[in-house]
Amino acid sequence: MLGRKIIQIECVDSTNNYVAILLSEGKIKHGTVILADEQTNGRGQRGASWDSKAGENLIFSMFIDTAILSVKDQFFLTQIISLAVVNMLSKFGIEADIKWPNDIYIKGRKIGGILIENHIKGDFLNGSIIGIGLNINQIEFDNLNATSLKLEIGEFTPIQSVVFSLINEINVGWDLIQTNQFEKINDLYLSKLWLLNIEADFFDQTGEFRGCIIGVTSNGLLQVQKENALVKYDLKEITFKI
Fold first, then answer.
1. pLDDT tens-digit map of 45-103
2. Domain ranges in the chain?
3. C-alpha–C-alpha distance, residues 94 and 83, integer Å
């Protein structure tokens, strides 16, 4: 079971970096969680920084032995972790969406993000570091398009209660991977994918355009109907106009 061991630390540059160091030293086991009150150099997708006020938010990393997953199936890990966050938020009465590939949004405002760092050995994964940043009790974001659990429900939430709920949901998703229920994972992910089958504005290398997300490939490429063509995008190749 994932999450049986939780290590709490006060301050670190990045919880993902902390896990990576423990892993290199052989000092971390499958399912171990690292929680920090503060991180000074949090990272997000595309090399973006993740800023979080000390003690107010969830700063979470988990190590998972993902050797059962092939490289070609690694996006299913992204899907189950994104779904775990969305499903956890639903326990607090919040309906959230997944902005491809794994940002978590509520009514167009970002509440959290995920950074997964996979180690690869041959055709299979050789362990994964799952980093999750989630706004819990922070209410000011310096004009960023962001929200938090407190802003959404109007009350303080102990971070510990969020942690235990999140771990439970990650275990649900991990069970789906262990039992090879990949089609179910993909269907659940698409059911929560922000802007699916809705016309919206995007940017790519040609400039701004209006298109419609129609799905995601098995290896995680975003499928967008652009004029009369179906275009597949990888990270950094498309930007949402928000």
1. 545 555 567 889 999 999 999 999 999 999 999 999 999 999 999 999 999 999 999 99
2. 6-191, 199-240
3. 13
Single out the residue of 115, 90, 101 nearest to residue 190, CA to CA: 101
Nearest to 48 by CA among 178, 125, 146, 119: 146
The owner of tokens 């009150």 is 37
Edge-to-edge, what's the strand order for the sheet holding 199-204?
229-233, 222-226, 207-216, 199-204, 239-240
Helical H segments across 123-225, by residue range: 149-153, 159-178, 182-191
CATH for 6-191 is 3.30.930.10
Cα(128)–Cα(74) distance, integer angstroms: 10
What kind of fold does domain 199-240 have according to CATH? SH3 type barrels. (2.30.30)
Overall pTM > 0.85: yes
